[in-house]
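Good morning N.,

You mentioned wanting to compare the apo and holo forms, so I went ahead and generated the holo version with manganese (II) ion. This is what I fed in:
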Amino acid sequence: MFSLTQFPLQFSESALAPHMSAQTLNCHHGKHLATYINNLNELIPDTQYADMPLIDIIKNSAHDKDAKKIFNNAAQVFNHDFFFHCLAPQGGGIAPNEIASAFGGADVMRREFKSVATSVFGSGWAWIVTDTDGKLKIIGTQNADTPIAHDMHPILALDVWEHAYYLDYQNRRADFVDAFWDHMINWDFVRENIK
Ligand code: MN
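and this is what came out, ligand included:
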């Protein structure tokens, strides 16, 4: 069984304001993530997934057509916990060269990430990942889909479901992506993921 206490925020709910409000974080972490955890706990007892670590649930249920709900909720638990780790008070700013150089520089990388993040149609995620060939890439995924299900290694995540930004930015997803890049990315966490 999983618990929200296993996936704590690394900062206070008001620490990212005004770029991400306490109201958004309270709802996003305390209600949306909590609901995915509760759903998963209700779905897995008496299945092959009951005692698996979260990552194994995701990898196995991704190929199990009878476990779509389990996949969706497990992937969303991972995606959210990873995303919240990608945020930090006084974060953001110019991408470290060790990452940006793979994209031809910090400006090109930022433009490409913003383009992908604003192009995800409907609900989903924007990611920097290491692909199976070891190359850094920027990708979008829809709904609960996650790089973990495609044997890619996540480096950075941005939630672009409307619940991630609507209270603070309404329909202006591009402004949310800019605020994420300029003020909220936890580059220390991102850097650790490429090692
Ligand atoms: Mn979310």
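The chain is about 50% helix and 10% strand.

Happy to go through it together on a call whenever suits you.

Best,
F.
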